[in-house]
Every structure is written in structure tokens, then in C-alpha cells.
Amino acid sequence: xxxxxxxxxxxxxxxxxxxxxxxxxxxxxxxxxxxxxxxxxxxxxxxxxxxxxxxxxxxxxxxxxxxxxxxxxxxxxxxxxxxxxxxxxxxxxxxxxxxxxxxxxxxxxxxxxxxxxxxxxxxxxxxxxxxxxxxxxxxxxxxxxxxxxxxxxxxxxxxxxxxxxxxxxxxxxxxxxxxxxxxxxxxxxxxxxxxxxxxxxxxxxxxxxxxxxxxxxxxxxxxxxxxxxxxxxxxxxxxxxxxxxxxxxxxxxxxxxxxxxxxxxxxxxxxxxxxxxxxxxxxxxxxxxxxxxxxxxxxxxxxxxxxxxxxxxxxxxxxxxxxxxxxxxxxxxxxxxxxxxxxxxxxxxxxxxxxxxxxxxxxxxxxxxxxxxxxx
Length: 376
Fold this sequence. Notes:
Helix content is 31%, strand content 20%. The strands form six sheets. Strands 10-11-7-12-6-13-14-17 form an eight-stranded mixed sheet, with helices on both faces. It has nine helices and 19 strands.
């Protein structure tokens, strides 16, 4: 080509590409690591760290269009490192740790965690799930594994897989599924540290951590140990469940763990006989949290038999015929997008043109990514 644009000119053109969630252009946010023009192609390195998130795919397509309009063949790369805030010390092969929490038991937290893991894997991501609910390890019931945990020569545990999802749970270590895991606090922490330090997770795009219900020591220790990309809080519409979910929000905010959003489970029952929708557990619980704390609702799931582990063959998000699959896929997309939003905002605060105000908050366009610290 005779009139090939320069790298500087191409960077100027890329400044027209907007981040749809953070309301600023990708150059000002520091999301463009590098631009290299070579012959009739251009390699663009982007500080993206949420694989298969719809918003990052959208931004990537916009970048390709800009490069193509400049008469060049686009070659996009994703590179996210310590300069952007990536923690390479704990779980160095894991790009994003997503904790799934609930203020109380019985609200479907494990169902959400298992379907989130399976849904991300269905999109092509490399995914693992850590069953941190030591006293009630139910993840293998929803994600049955094809084999038992393995052992490397140096002693590290190799997690078994469930249709490609790596699964680690104390359920694998118990001799009988009906035997309770009778473990006191320090023993629980020891088990969790072993699962974090002595499990060969390999290279993962997402590690889903199914936290124990409530706000006890186990959840607190994990928050202090793991580099959490964000937390998904699960509740039902019931008043007591919502009240306990609020306590969880405050715990995460106190430990600088971004709340990605709230999933309202058991929100309604659609009767196949009368075709009416019945809100048997009330309504508006997640919306109430959203309005008070500014965290989005990232999923609204109905009461449905497909969530029953006895009748379902694995997580419903894998079932093409399940009427709840669309709701689950929407939840997976929203959670992945929130991970990307938080990560890209972190980049803007570290290497972009965003500056912090006197209170330490990023002074940037658009609404902040909330952690739910204080109700509005």
C-alpha cells in the first residue's frame, strides 16, 4: 500500500471506539496497550480480561472495523498483566475469580454457581469451579464428574472434569455422600487453603467459587486470600432472604470485593396448566437491593423442575430444550459483562487518563462500578 496509516494515526482513529459500559473511549481508558502496523496489517493489543463477554466482543468488533476502514488487516490480541492490577501471586493461571454468595442457605446459590460455570464453558471459556461450601458440598450433584481427582508427582491435586469444567469439592474426598463433613473452623480453612494452593487448576479464564452461605469466617478468609474479580449475590424475593443478602453486600464492600450484581432466584412460577405466572415467594427483592445499593440485577430465574438435580441431566444451561435456558444464558452474559466492566475500569484507573479524586474514587465519566457499600 502507498498510503498506509501510521501507528499514531491509527491510535487516533481508535479513540473513536467507545466502551459502552464505562462511557469513555478505549484510548483514554488505557485499554489499547500497543498498536503495531506492519505492511498491510495492524496488530492491536487490548487490555481485555473477560473472555467471551458480549461487551468486549462488541468493542473488539468495533476495533476491527476501524482498522479495516484504515485499509489494514486487523490482528487483535488480548493482554492483561500486573500493570493493570492482575494478581500473579495467588492462582497465577486464573484470570478471573468470581465468588457466588448468599446471605442464607436454601436460595439456590449452588444452582446459580454451577450454571454460571457451565454457561461460560459453553461459550468457549476455560472454567473451573471450587466448591467452598465444605459442610454442604453439592456442586458435584449439579456438575457430575467423569472421573476422580488425580495426583501429580509433587503432590498437587488434579481436579476432575464435568463436560470440560474443572470441579473441586470436599464431596470428592468423603467416603460416603451421606456422611456429614464434621469440621471445625480451622479445619475448614485448612481444606480451603489446600484447594487454593495445592490444586493444579492450570490456565483458566474463570474460576467460580461457590461460597458457604452467610457471612462467616470461611467466606471472610476466602475474600482475604483470593484475588476476587467480583461477587454475585443470590437471593429469593422473600424478605428474610433479602435482608441477609444485604448483610453480604456490606461484608463484600468492607473488603473491597466488587459486587457484580444480584441474582433473584425463585422469582416466579409459570404454571403450564393455566398459563399464569405466580409469584409464590413475593416479588421485588432484587429490585429493592438494586435501588438501595446501586448494584444491577444480573439474573431473574423462575421456579422450575429443570433446576431439580434428580430430574435434570446436568445444569439446565446445557439443555437446548429447557425453557429456563434463555434466562440462564442472559445471566451468564450479564455476569461476564460485569467482570469486563470492572476490569476495564481498573485499567482506566491504573494506566488510563482517569484520575482519582480526594476521596480516592475514580473521577471518570459515567456511573461508578458500585461495591454496595452504603445504601443510597
